[in-house]
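re: that complex we talked abt at group meeting.

here r the seqs, copy pasted straight from the sheet so there may be weird spacing, ignore it
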Amino acid sequence: MKTATMILGVIGSDCHAVGNKILERVFSDAGFKVINLGVMVSQDEYIDAAIETGAEVIMVSSLYGHGEIDCQGFRERCVERGLHRVIIYVGGNLVIGKTPREQVIAKFEQMGYDRVFMPDVDLESVIELLREDIKKQRLGNESISKY
Amino acid sequence: MDIVKGKISKKSLMELRKKVLEDWPTGAEVNLQEGVKYQLSLPENMNFAKALAQADAEKKVLLQPRAGVALVEEHIRLLKYLEPECDLLPTTIDAYTRQNRYEEAQRGIDKSQAAGQSLLNGFPAVNHGIKKCKMLVESLEKPVEVRHGTPDARLLAEITLAAGFSSFEGGGISYNIPYTKKVPLEKSIAYWQYIDRLSGYYEDEGVSINREPFGPLSGTLVPPFISHSIAIIEGLLALEQGVRSITLGYGQAGNLIQDVAAIISLRELADEYFHQSGYDDYALSTVFHQWMGGFPEDESKAYGVISWGAVAAALSKATKVIVKTPHEAMGIPTKEANRQGLICTRQVVSMLADQEMPQTQQLLDEVALIKRETRCVIDKVFELGGDCLALGAVQAFKAGVLDVPFAPSTANPGRLMPVRDNHGAIRLLDRGGVPISDDIYEIHKELIQERAKEEGREPGFQMVIDDIYAISKGKLVGRGNYKAKTKK
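got the structure back, here u go
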């Protein structure tokens, strides 16, 4: 498989850096080309980087509770700026308060995220899913994104 | 504004203030004389510095939660609900305000109002302004501290101090390096000189404002001497601007000996450096933060982590302990979970109130080691700064002399790499550019080697990752799969 480029970053005004540094390491070790924008990344910064590098994946993290506000409209913004086929994953502590995970996943899928993860997810399984999703997306006839 | 050498004059403070107060419309409500008068009108039990000084004299450990929501009425309800179970109150500020994004904070307030629940992760004090902040203070019976993570908190300080808050967390290093990406250190240190000078102004007028540099930094495997060095530097910078009530902090590492030694050495080192710099008329206290890293999701396990933090806080005789909640792994806790964390901590702290940590050789050695390490760093920062410690701190980060593990700021060198030793104490896998002497570095290497041997693997980054996730997986030392294989 051709090396896939991924844009990695923590969205909004969030400065949680530890997981970001670990994700960079783990995804790089798994063979992805990781462009890590670090913490406090705006929607447009992800998109700029994705356009510039031809990235197939945008990996959004949010840990501080404002995820719901920060992540809204990201898919529309991508489409608006010409990224019609980018795969977007989101993970972290996405909402304020203890909410059933099914609810959180449904909410973010509705917003246009292809996959939604909780903090306790096994990163190996994320890597597997990502490889499958990229393969499907490259085949092109069945877009995994509904956009 | 730029870093000032020495104390900011009253005249330049007044000039700087004019501009700061123009940042957001609520700044126009601030009048310094009225602020002082208002603080003096509050009952004595509302003053943070007094509460800490009294606890310090009585050798008590005070409890403080974290808490903040978007709307005033809701925030008052939250604090009143926590008040009976704690000694000191917080007001945690939301992340937009921390970045001075007051328009976004306003949207957060509006959306929260519409949603009927808080969509912000804290209390946007600047947007609410003086009147609503006073309403908050007046509905409470215990002193309130502003807790945040704001590199430029000048307007936040102006508003909250004038509205009766009597403690303000943060510092030019500790609220930059772990909390921002691109704010230059020379800027944030200058902003915090202003805040210290403003606090010093209140102090001169008879209102003691407690200042608390943020101890835990990135909260992730920070060796005690790193956080001690930064805490003491920020303490000295605060003293220089006229602050007299100082609380220095430390975040739990998890190894009891190292944690108790850390609080003992922090206090002794601070006194040593403060006296050495010519200050004698200050009130020093310490704060112990329960585990700041990743928590287990299971609430019973989380109570275990909270209790262990309570043990270390009580045995180290820290003046206060910042309490976590059983919802930590999930993000912002419900008010019930927040109170449960306090009740759990109170139980442990009370049971240990009459017990002493035995002064074993191992404890004394650890105290001595932390002191030697800290002196290596601070003395170098003094050397780099010449007659200006603030500039010394900026130089120190550029040179790699100060380095905070896992911090997001581009001003942070990020070359130092910590890892746990075989007993869970935090040591240096790689000292980076931090001027730890070779003989001390050798001690670290030996201790890490002991662990490597036990686990049958070479020390490396995988060990560090395993350590970061260990507590949420039920261990202190991240043994990976290695130990499990050999023992089974």
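couple things i noticed - Chain A touches chain B through 27 residues (CB under 8 Å). Chain A is about 40% helix and 15% strand.
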